[in-house]
Amino acid sequence: MVGGFVRGRRLGVPPGKGVRPTQDRIREALFSILGDTVEGSIVLDAFAGSGALGIEALSRGAERAVFCDEKHECVHAIRENLRKCELDGRAVVFRTRLPEGLARIREALAEPCDLVFLDPPYGAEGKERILEGLHRFALLKERARIVFEHAQKDAFACVPAGFVVEGERRYGNTLLTFLNYQPGEERETMGGKGKAKIENCVIYPGSFDPITYGHVNIVKRALKIFDRIIVAVAINTTKSGTFSVEERVGMMQEVFKGEPDVEVDSFSGLLVDYVRTRQAQAILRGIRTVTDFDYEFQMALANKSLDPNVEQVYMMTEGKYLYHSSSIIKEIVSLGGAVGEMLPPAVEKKLSEKLKV
């Protein structure tokens, strides 16, 4: 286990070539993306194998988990791993084939799931039928998240109605596709892959080291224009920040936890590639000064040359936030100054601790 109160425990792996546990580094990255949404959730770990994903969720605060696998040796291993981690009282384990066993699983649940892990054998067919079954048997709460782990060649040919692709993450030959359950909402498909399109979504990228009230103000004003905003921390491997990427993502999740239409994420590589991956319509940036404008103008031209279809939207910073740059704020804090009007309380506390003021 890589996190939570059973961190460091080793899980038993079922024998056989057909079992492919999620690698530790991928599991750690996955739960970093999911963040606080795991806490208190009802989880379904389908094609569970050793049960590592569901047990990781329980370790990180999930209320209850249901595990299912069609192999006897996997079911035995899951039960033994739950017992070893003292989590068997918060879990139910089924030996069943999917999607045929979904009705039986629903009967055992007091309420629908908030989070579903789908990790079928690479090359397996029928994933669309499983999504349709999750909908048909009312196994999902509205806005439930589904994480599909698969090889690149096993991407969805067409996502069933009611499911929206939030994005993808690639780790070597493994892809994680994130879907959101939005019943009753039709989504048109894009290109030849048939992925669902998120309408009126914008990416707000930046270093956010740390996030300030100026950033928060841009997001709240942008929510009047866009249905969904993804605030994305840009990973810069050539430059070390005051906070790690994980710390910045965590702080922003805390700041925006009351905003259901704001998602916090991180990305590396070209911004236009990330925009395409998340199927957003535009890039959002804030402008404080003429210097900002010159920089953003150059970046806009560069992004347009890389992808003419990506639009860019700019918002002027409100007057009271014009001097709220992260570098100035960090210098003020390092010299013992007060920045309560510039930073959200949780961010101010963490910055003071980081700079040991």
Question: Which descriptors apply to this entry?
Answer:
Rossmann fold; 2 domains; alpha/beta; 357 residues
CATH superfamily of the largest domain: Vaccinia Virus protein VP39
Please tally the helical runs, counting DSSP H or I stretches of 4 or more residues: 11
Q: What strand line-up does the widest sheet have? A: 3-2-1-4-5-7-6
Q: What is the mean predicted local confidence, pLDDT? A: 86
Morphology call: globular
CATH topology of the largest domain: Rossmann fold
Radius of gyration: 22 Å
> Tell me about the biggest sheet?
7 strands, mixed
- Secondary-structure arrangement, i.e. CATH architecture of the largest domain: 3-Layer(aba) Sandwich
List the helices and strands and how they pair.
Elements lengths: L23 H11 L7 E5 L5 H8 L4 E6 L2 H13 L6 E5 L6 H7 L4 E6 L8 H10 L3 E12 L11 E9 L2 E8 L7 E2 L4 E2 L4 E6 L6 H10 L5 E7 L10 H11 L6 E6 L3 H8 L3 E6 L2 H17 L4 E6 L9 H9 L10 H10 L3
Parallel strand pairs: 1-2, 1-4, 2-3, 4-5, 10-11, 10-13, 11-12, 13-14
Antiparallel strand pairs: 5-7, 6-7, 8-9
Task: Characterise the protein shown here.
By secondary structure, the protein is of the alpha/beta class. It folds into two domains: 24-196, Rossmann fold, CATH 3.40.50; 201-354, Rossmann fold. It has eleven helices and 14 strands. It has helices at 24-34, 52-59, 72-84, 102-108, 127-136, 213-222, 245-255, 271-278, 290-306, 326-334, 345-354; strands at 42-46, 64-69, 91-95, 113-118, 140-151, 163-171, 174-181, 189-190, 195-196, 201-206, 228-234, 262-267, 282-287, 311-316. The strands form three sheets. Strands 3-2-1-4-5-7-6 form a seven-stranded mixed sheet, sandwiched between helices. Strands 12-11-10-13-14 form a five-stranded parallel sheet, sandwiched between helices. Helix 7 (245-255) links the parallel strand 11 (228-234) and strand 12 (262-267). The longest helix has 17 residues, at 290-306. It is globular, with a radius of gyration of 22 Å. Mean pLDDT is 86; it is low at 186-198.
